[in-house]
Amino acid sequence: MDFLNALIAFLNFVAVPAVAYGAQLALGALGVTLIYGILRFSNFAHGDTMAFGTAIAIILTWGLQSAGIGFGPLPTALLALPVAIAVTVGLVLLTDRVVYRFYRRQKAAPAILVIVSLGVMFVMNGIVRLVIGVEEQNFADGERFVISAGDFKTATGLAEGLAIKTTQAITVVTAVVVVAALFWFLQKTRTGKSMRAFSDNEDLALLSGINPDRVVQVTWIIAAGLAVIAGVLYGLDKSFRPFTYFQLLLPIFAAAIVGGLGNPIGAIAGGFVIAFSEVIVTYAWKKVLTYVLPDSLAPDGLVQLLSTDYKLAVSFVILIIVLLFAPTGLFKGKSV
Questions:
Q1: DSSP single-letter state for residue 11
Q2: Beta bridge partners of 147
Q3: Closest Cα to residue 227, out of 18, 93, 27, 22?
Q4: CA of 133: how far to CAs of 12, 51, 55, 327, in Å?
Q5: Bridge pairing between strands 145-147 and 164-165
Q6: Which of 186, 172, 324 has its CA nearest to residue 263?
Q7: Where are the domains of the chain?
Q8: Which of 178, 175, 194 is nearest to 186 (CA)?
Q9: Is 2-325 a domain of CATH 1.10.3470?
Q10: Contacts (Cβ under 8 Å, ≥6 apart) of 266
């Protein structure tokens, strides 16, 4: 019985949150890796693209709620998501036309494009703060739990209860659907094959008649869509604050680089590696160990390797280790 309680505590506080967080990082890292693999630069504005799309979704959600429109047990933000994606895609395409296209035609070095993306990042961050402010926003509504801890305890008779939030379940299901659709698009459609060919060999792709402007446009559209979905899911699961999304840039890039920057499968794997690493290192293991160890060995302290305040440090350390010893990542992406 104690072993089962320990298992439930592990699932409740480590496995389930890490899976949801990993799915959010994976979607964010997919956008980063697509930009890097096809447009050949690291887009540091990706985190603030997530923030912008989420801010638009929150404003639309408030409008729907004030009009008395909901989505039953599901968050109303899911109704606002398609419009938020469309608005963000419009902004990203405008940014590409006004800013990035000039440097692309000048055959600017990737380092210059990275610096340009930093400028775009600060502008977008300012827009988000102007539009929605700097305060924390909680916009999740509908049913809070798919399984509540109290119901689980009543059904099983265990001391520990398993709680799965609706937002966590939606995150995992949405991530699976989006990733499956993306891989189908890249593998089966003509445009997806053109994008892969452009990524593998740009000169050969141009000789074969592939339209580079269309490839670039579709890449930005997909990356913006992934950014908004990841941002809204993260905001629903936790909360929204513009600076938090700026901080998310580190674990997202760490996920992309750990998996292999430019490799979509690697981005997904890297997202879960980073998420589980952060949660495992910052979780206080006292409760789990108390169940599995004899009373004489039960820990007095929290048994926490790092405070949650240092969660980002875990991503940073993993990123440095990968860059030092395996710069192409787990799935052999492009060397950074």
A1: I
A2: 164
A3: 27
A4: 33, 12, 9, 38
A5: antiparallel
A6: 186
A7: 2-325
A8: 194
A9: yes
A10: 33, 256, 258, 259, 260, 329, 330, 331, 332, 333
CB 145 within 8 A of CB 166: yes
Predicted structure pTM score: 0.94
Which class for 171: exposed (0-12), middle (13-18), buried (19 or more C-beta within 10 A)?
Answer: buried
Q: Which of 145, 120, 126, 117 is nearest to 55 (CA)?
A: 126
- 260 close to 330: Cβ distance less than 8 angstroms: yes
For helices 212-237 and 77-95, angle between their N-to-C axes, nearest 10 degrees: 140
How does pLDDT run across 193-238, given as a tens digit for each residue? 999 999 888 888 888 888 999 999 999 999 999 999 999 999 999 9
From the list 278, 302, 249, 260, the residue with the least C-alpha distance to 49 is 249
Which tens digit of pLDDT belongs to each residue from 137-151?
999 999 999 999 999
* Rounded CA separation 51/104 (Å): 25
